[in-house]
Amino acid sequence: MTLHQGEIVVGEELVRRLLGEQCPQWAGLELVPSGAGTENTMFRLGADLLVRLPRTVEKAAALRKERVWLPRLAPHLPFRVPEPVFTGEASAVFPAEWSVFRWIGGSEAGPGSVADWGRFGSDLAGFVRALHRVDLMGADFSWYRGGDLAPCAGWVSDSLESCRALVGAELDIATAESYWRAGLAQPPSPHPKVWLHGDLKPTNLLVEEGRLVAVIDFGAVSVGRPDAEHATVWDLPSAARDAYWNALNLDEPTWLRARAWAVAVAASGIAYYWDTFPAFVTECRTRLTHILSS
Fold this sequence. Notes:
- The protein has two domains: 12-102, Phosphorylase Kinase, domain 1 (2-Layer Sandwich); 107-293, Aminoglycoside 3'-phosphotransferase, Chain: A, domain 2 (Alpha-Beta Complex), CATH 3.90.1200.
- Helices cover 40% and strands 15% of the residues.
- The chain has helices spanning 12-22, 60-73, 117-133, 153-167, 173-184, 238-248, 252-273, 278-293, and strands spanning 31-36, 40-45, 49-54, 84-88, 98-102, 107-108, 194-196, 205-208, 211-215, 222-224.
- The strands form three sheets. Strands 1-2-3-5-4 form a five-stranded antiparallel β-sheet, sandwiched between helices. A three-stranded antiparallel β-sheet has the order 6-8-9, with helices on one face.
- This is Aminoglycoside phosphotransferase family protein.
- InterPro entries: AGP_Transferase, Aminoglycoside_PTrfase, Kinase-like_dom_sf.
- Pfam families: APH.
């Protein structure tokens, strides 16, 4: 099912044609679907590679950012991150740039993979601390989650109204909205701009033997204020949130702004993907459930 207007439909046959056209050395390797997110469709290629294809031509820009910046960021980070190994060009077969990355093994962070949620929260905080300390290296490209909450008030209010109509009987959207407004009432973030991953949700956190080992999908990488970076901890159990908070020693206004961002992104995800991406809607509902029970 397509998620966006102008989405490029991708299947194994198309990927085979792309490989044969641009990197025939890999054309004979086993090709297996490996999931799809809101931005990309993915195929595992052989034992060691991953093909990522943007869902629309415009979303190829996110892959381009990863190819440029991940090799520069990786040496400063405590866990594995994606390693680009090939840049695919737009062609008659596929009208956008695409990428091949080194495969990273592991399981998504969850109850069946994480051994100790407190330690996981501390490890995630260590990754965030390291990323936020990396020199900006002249980068100055932003994303809305690296800015202030106020410019987002219109679409967040619309998203909350949509959520009230869709799930209002199951979730306390009025309380969620009060958390959004509590963050909105805080002064603008005083923190300096830093590198942001932008989407540290469990599906982008890989675990082996119970421990965090890799952080993937840097499509939202940007430079901005760090408040929204902390929003995804509400996807995690309370033990991880508490350990994360303590490890980073976050102040109350930052935490309130982060919680407001968590509400905003969850509400917009439910509203936008309700009919097209049930798995992502479930992630967003889980986040709101955690926020409302915290």
